[in-house]
């Protein structure tokens, strides 16, 4: 005998009330993820999790506060590159990268090979994961208050690309200490 949709919904609601301790953590995790992705992506706790292959570290400790960044330091910043027009979900998302260039450094591009102060830092890919073309960063002298940042993985979306660009000092949320 078929039960009505209303009866099934009432039975399921009763089941959820009896097993609230199972559903509450699931809903809390989903609410946190939704808030983090669509409302406020700024990290609020000092423990960070890196789910991408842009750096070899999966867990890191965030140190808030401003100080002059050094080459080789790990930073987390709020994304504000040109790619926001094409990929609106990137706006304000936290990116975890390594500082490779400081104000006054010279960025040069030969073909798709990018160098900072004459040291090759990486090669820009021709296209993104969705096959849209990617242009390498334009040759420049890094202006005051800006940084060239990069991941260690070849697929990292970073300052090698014009649509990501240099990072302004005010975008930097803090430095990061990789744990593992």
TrEMBL record:
One Pfam family this sequence matches: Peptidase_S26
Source taxon at top rank: Bacteria
Chain ranges of the Peptidase S26 domain: 60-177
Residue ranges of the TM segments: 20-39
GO terms for MF: serine-type endopeptidase activity
Keyword Zinc among UniProt keywords: no
One annotated GO biological process: signal peptide processing
NCBIfam families named in the record: TraF_Ti
Family listed: Belongs to the peptidase S26C family.
Name under which the protein is recorded: Conjugative signal peptidase TrhF
Gene source species: Piscinibacter sakaiensis (Ideonella sakaiensis)
């Amino acid at each position: 005998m078929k039960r009505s949709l209303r009866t099934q919904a009432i039975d399921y609601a009763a089941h959820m009330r009896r097993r609230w301790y199972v559903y509450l953590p699931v809903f809390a995790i989903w609410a946190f993820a939704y808030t983090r992705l669509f409302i406020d992506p700024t990290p609020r706790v000092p423990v960070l999790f890196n789910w991408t292959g842009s750096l070899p570290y999966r867990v890191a400790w965030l140190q808030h506060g401003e100080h002059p960044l050094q080459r080789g330091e790990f930073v987390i910043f709020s994304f504000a590159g040109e790619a926001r027009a094409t990929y609106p979900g990137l706006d304000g998302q936290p990116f975890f990268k390594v500082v490779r260039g400081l104000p006054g450094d010279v960025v040069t591009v030969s073909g798709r090979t990018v160098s900072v102060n004459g040291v090759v830092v990486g090669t820009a890919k021709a296209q993104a994961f969705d096959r849209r073309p990617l242009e390498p960063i334009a040759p420049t002298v890094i202006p005051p208050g800006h940084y060239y940042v990069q991941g260690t993985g070849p697929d990292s979306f970073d300052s090698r690309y014009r649509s990501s660009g240099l990072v302004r000092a005010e975008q930097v949320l803090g430095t990061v200490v990789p744990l593992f």
